Amino acid sequence: MGDTTIATDILSGLADAAAEIGKSIVIRRPSGSSWINAAKPSLGKSITYTDYVLTVIISDYDDDLIDGTRILYGDRRVIADIKDLGITISTADVFMDNSYAIGGVDDTLETFTILTQDLTSVFTSGKEFVVTGSTGNDGSWTVDSSALSGSDTVITVTGNITDGTVDGNITTDTWEIIRVSRVEVSGVDCVAELQIRK
Fold first, then answer.
1. Among residues 54, 99, 59, 98, which one has the least CA distance to residue 78?
2. Each residue of 33-65: pLDDT tens digit?
3. First-last CA distance in the chain
């Protein structure tokens, strides 16, 4: 019985990792900064980011992350297609995961909608997420509340949504990149193996 439980836990963890294959992920890189208020430097600077989308080829956990009873959710290995990325990934970048297509935007009620999924347990008050690939809403957002409307998750944010165009993706999880290995073919970086950590 115990062995069955152990095998189920490990296989479940590996299945979760395998589900990432073929999924689009985002590498986020700081690209600039400016004073929030030039007359009041004490308010600090606002950082702008550039996001790069790539596709997962392999996602798994190394053998030493399995302790015989469960997956140790720490370091994960991801191999991704970087042939057309246009940058060299480094440990200074941030790996972003769990992306959902935006299916609705209301710039009056300050809401984003994700269609046909109940994600209210993910988008709880205070949860931060990032919008990428949108016409005018790219950036970091904070959840005020979320609710189910039919089968859709409606997320109310604390900031002001200024563009009502329905496009882009919401990404909820960020991982630290702690090691990068690249595979080069004919002088071109084709894939990168990333060791990532929550």
1. 59
2. 777 777 877 766 666 777 777 777 766 665 545
3. 31
Distances (CA, A) of 34 to 20, 42, 43, 45: 35, 13, 11, 5
Q: Quote the CA–CA distance of 158 and 32 in Å, as a whole number.
A: 24
Token pair 């042939």 in the structure block, residue: 83
Q: Are 43 and 36 in contact (CB under 8 A)?
A: yes
Report yes or no: 56 and 22 within 8 Å, Cβ to Cβ.
yes
**How far is it, in rounded angstroms, from Cα 140 to Cα 132?**
9
d(CA 188, CA 198): 30
Q: 147-175 pLDDT, tens per residue?
A: 999 999 999 999 899 999 999 888 887 77
Predicted TM-score (pTM) above 0.90: no
In a 10 Å sphere around its CB, with 0-12 CB exposed, 13-18 middle and 19+ buried, how is residue 60 labelled? middle
* pLDDT, mean of residues 179-197: 70
